[in-house]
C-alpha cells in the first residue's frame, strides 16, 4: 500500500532532493522553469507518494500557464526514486492528479515529454502550441480534460500572472472526493512493461 497526499511545506525539502537526484544538474535553467519562476504552484495538484514506512518514492507538481490567453495546467516535474522506477508509481501519480484536476474544473493540460509514454494517459502532440526555446516541438503534448478544450487554443506558452488565483478553475461537483484529500492505493499491476518511466520526461528534460 502507498499513500498519495498533496505536498505540504514540510515535504518541500524532500521533494527538491528527489528532483535533484532524478534530474541532471542545471534543471532550473530550463525553459519550463522560466514559466514557473515567481508563480505559485497549483497546490491541490502537487502530490507526493510515500511507502508504508513514510519514505518518499515519487512526486508530481503542476503550475498554471497561459496559451492564447487561456488557462492551462503545466504538468511537471514528475519524478520517481531510482529504486522504485519501473513499478508504475509514475502512472499512479499521473492518473490521480489528472482526476483531481478534472474535479477542480481544469480543462486542459500541457507537458513536454516522450509521446510513446504519455500517450497511454491520453496525451498527444500539440502542433500549434509553442514552448519557449529550446524545446523539441515533437515533445509538446496536451490532454483535454473536457471535450474540445484544446480546439483553437494556440500560440506561445506564457507565464501566468502571480496575482491570479489558480488554485481551482471551478467548483468541485457534489459527491466528488475533495481534491485535497489523501488516499491509499495498492501497488500498481500495470505500467511495468519496462517502457521508459515518467521520471524526467515532463517539461524538464
UniProtKB/TrEMBL annotation:
<keyword id="KW-0808">Transferase</keyword>
<dbReference type="Pfam" id="PF00583">
    <property type="entry name" value="Acetyltransf_1"/>
</dbReference>
<feature type="region of interest" description="Disordered">
    <location>
        <begin position="158"/>
        <end position="181"/>
    </location>
</feature>
<dbReference type="InterPro" id="IPR016181">
    <property type="entry name" value="Acyl_CoA_acyltransferase"/>
</dbReference>
<feature type="domain" description="N-acetyltransferase">
    <location>
        <begin position="2"/>
        <end position="146"/>
    </location>
</feature>
<feature type="region of interest" description="Disordered">
    <location>
        <begin position="186"/>
        <end position="205"/>
    </location>
</feature>
<protein>
    <submittedName>
        <fullName>N-acetyltransferase</fullName>
    </submittedName>
</protein>
<dbReference type="InterPro" id="IPR000182">
    <property type="entry name" value="GNAT_dom"/>
</dbReference>
<dbReference type="GO" id="GO:0016747">
    <property type="term" value="F:acyltransferase activity, transferring groups other than amino-acyl groups"/>
</dbReference>
